[in-house]
Amino acid sequence: MKQLFRTLAVTVAAVTALLAAEPAVAASAPRTESVSVTRSGGFAGRTDSFAVDSTTRDDRAEEALGVAAELRFRMLRPTYLPANPCCDRYRYEVVARYSDGTVKTVVTMDAVPGTPDVLTEVIDLVTTSGAPAPA
Prior knowledge:
Layout: H1 2-28, E1 32-41, E2 46-53, H2 59-69, H3 71-74, E3 79-80, E4 90-98, E5 103-109, H4 117-127, E6 132-133
Parallel strand pairs: 3-5
Antiparallel strand pairs: 1-2, 1-4, 2-6, 4-5
Helix pairs in contact: 2-4
């Protein structure tokens, strides 16, 4: 019981420290300069590209830049792919470029179990912002 209590106390202390540090992390986070989404595949096998940046005057584009700057997006794994990628599904490559020169690239496909909501949110925001980019 003592060991369980110690483990719990250490866990609570660590979580408290992380929560306390979160504003500092957010304050020092780089701005998102641009986000691009390349959608390929599907039934027709097309490739479409979409992009937003700080000059894109659209509420959804501004929201995409903001969400891509959040820690929950920056901490995503590089891929969220299914075991079997067959059968007319779209593949998405999301590339976020930040003010500190870093680049975050994440690849996923339609209907992959466990795909984080933040990833699908950024894809939706960018692809519906009305800013098609050259493929």
